[in-house]
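Inverse folding, one chain.
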């Protein structure tokens, strides 16, 4: 049964012992239910949070303690992850299979997050059982603390814009296809904030003429890179996943799956309605959905077709990606400039090359990283808990540092890395699709990307001065992308393809950041309310 009010308050008080006492608290109570949604103009079974689809936005400020009590009223286990929230020193709260036990039906769990030293635009989503295909996602914004300068004027409004691809079928049916180890069919449509292409069902944003607005764009979809544009309006990019950027202006912007951007638009056109357009990229089947930018002083609807955008042009997208750079003089979460950390002057101690691949194992579809297709442990015990209680069940370091060229095989892949080192990871994509890679617990510098095969000579073209620091990066077809990471966050962290069917069928791994000298000063102990499952449920009690 859910915790009673008095006990819940007492429990929360215990849970926050390890957070910074002087930082404010923000409390949320979420009821997760099934409900009827209409993203494509027809009724579907969706996942709602407090009756909403998409779910409610989380608004926070740097260093806030965010307390979210989640009640699972579904008929199956449920788990939420926080895309971009670093959960510093506390991967127990990360909300993916390898770190956190799911919430059983009819039960609740209180997440204790601290948005330590972070700003920016992010989102949350359900991470297991392919729930993401039915909703349960929403925006998560972190504002700068008062007194910390922001490199643009306060906008007149601040909108969350969640875009993605969508199926008419719900997660249960899609999951059954994957569980039979088959590929999913092509998606049915695209959406903007849960609204599809049907006329009366369009997403709408109202603006006042002459004022400037911030749009926080996130691609919460399952597979497709999407292009975002607004008829007759330019977009000024100001922030990418927690980093203030050089303020380049774009007519349209590619947002790859899992990525988030903040842009400013000014309502400086003739008062009327203007198309907001989202279309898919790099596909022979083209999909488009539209929303409305509505001027408050006009009753004139838009006329004519929506503006077209790029379709299959990889070079166009690569050029745009290279133009996104860090604003070195802007403050981040702290008053010191973002450029005060000179990542390009630090020697890397290790290079890891990760290659994605697709194939079959015993006649069943699988996806892999360096030939290893991830499978959970037989007991179902999250890796972080198995590691904490020292019960084994997996082997750190069982995935090679470079592609082997071998056939795909199944294993619980865990990459062993050393705390407080500075490493290079090269994502190699020999396939004909655009990949998108995300690492929980960290932001990394995207120092280079190009077509062809990576070699040590490729480092000559790295951006070692103002590369953007972000949490999700694309890798173009038959191309590579290189990142630098400062491994300063102890824990067990999920590194995954954001192509969600690929992630589900093995294209992920966990990065264990740890050393034998790691102590309680480096990592928080297990939360006292942590759910226990698998082997640890029956064999151990949580320590006090």
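Residues assigned per position:
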């Amino acid at each position: 049964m859910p915790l009673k009010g008095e006990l819940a308050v007492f429990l929360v008080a215990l849970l926050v012992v390890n957070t910074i006492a002087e930082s404010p608290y923000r409390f949320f109570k979420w009821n997760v239910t099934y409900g009827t949604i209409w993203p494509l103009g027809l009724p579907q079974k969706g996942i709602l949070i407090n009756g909403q689809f998409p779910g409610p936005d989380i608004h926070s400020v740097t260093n806030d303690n965010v307390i979210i009590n989640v009640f699972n009223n579904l008929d199956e286990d449920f788990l939420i992850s926080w895309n971009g929230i670093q959960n510093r020193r506390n991967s127990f709260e990360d909300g993916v299979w390898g770190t956190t036990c799911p919430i059983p039906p009819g039960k609740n769990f209180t997440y204790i997050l601290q948005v330590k030293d972070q700003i920016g635009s992010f989102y949350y989503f359900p991470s297991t059982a392919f729930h993401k295909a039915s909703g349960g996602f929403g925006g998560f914004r972190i504002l700068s603390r008062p007194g910390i300068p922001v490199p643009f004027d306060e906008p007149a409004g601040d909108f969350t814009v969640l875009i993605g691809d969508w199926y008419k079928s719900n997660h249960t049916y899609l999951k059954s296809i994957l569980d039979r180890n088959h590929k999913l069919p092509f998606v049915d449509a695209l959406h903007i904030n849960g609204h599809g292409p049907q006329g009366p069902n369009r997403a709408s944003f109202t603006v006042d003429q002459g004022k400037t607005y911030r749009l926080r764009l996130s691609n919460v979809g399952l597979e497709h890179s999407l292009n975002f544009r607004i008829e007759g309006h330019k977009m000024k990019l100001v922030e990418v996943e927690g980093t203030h950027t050089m303020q380049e202006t774009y007519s349209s912007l590619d947002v790859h799956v899992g990525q988030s951007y903040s842009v400013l638009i000014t309502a400086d056109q003739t008062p009327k309605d203007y198309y907001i357009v989202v279309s898919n990229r790099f596909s022979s089947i083209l999909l488009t959905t539209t929303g409305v930018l509505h001027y408050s002083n006009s009753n004139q609807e838009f006329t004519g077709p929506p503006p077209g955008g790029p379709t299959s042009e990889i070079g166009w997208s690569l050029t745009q990606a290279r133009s996104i750079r860090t604003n070195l003089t802007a403050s981040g979460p702290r008053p010191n400039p973002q450029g005060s950390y000179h990542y390009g002057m630090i020697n890397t101690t290790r290079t890891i090359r990760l290659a994605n691949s697709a194939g079959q194992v015993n006649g069943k579809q699988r996806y892999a990283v360096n030939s290893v297709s991830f499978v959970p442990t037989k007991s179902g015990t999250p890796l972080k808990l198995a590691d904490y209680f020292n019960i084994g069940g997996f082997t750190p370091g069982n995935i090679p540092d470079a592609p082997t060229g071998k056939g795909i095989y199944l294993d619980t892949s865990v990459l062993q890395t050393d705390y407080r080192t500075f490493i290079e990871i090269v994502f190699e994509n020999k396939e004909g699709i655009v990949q998108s890679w995300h690492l929980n617990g960290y932001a990394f510098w995207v120092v280079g990307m190009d077509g062809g095969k990576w070699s040590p000579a490729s480092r000559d073209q790295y951006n070692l001065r103002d590369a953007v620091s972000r949490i999700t990066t694309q890798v173009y077809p038959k191309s590579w992308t290189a990142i630098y990471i400062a491994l300063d966050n102890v824990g067990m962290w999920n590194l995954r393809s954001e192509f969600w069917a690929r992630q589900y069928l093995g294209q992920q791994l966990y990065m264990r950041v740890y050393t034998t000298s790691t102590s309680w000063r480096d990592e928080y102990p297990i939360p006292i309310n942590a759910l226990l499952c698998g082997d640890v449920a029956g064999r151990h009690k949580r320590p006090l």
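The CA atoms of residues 489 and 535 lie 26 Å apart. The mean pLDDT is 94.
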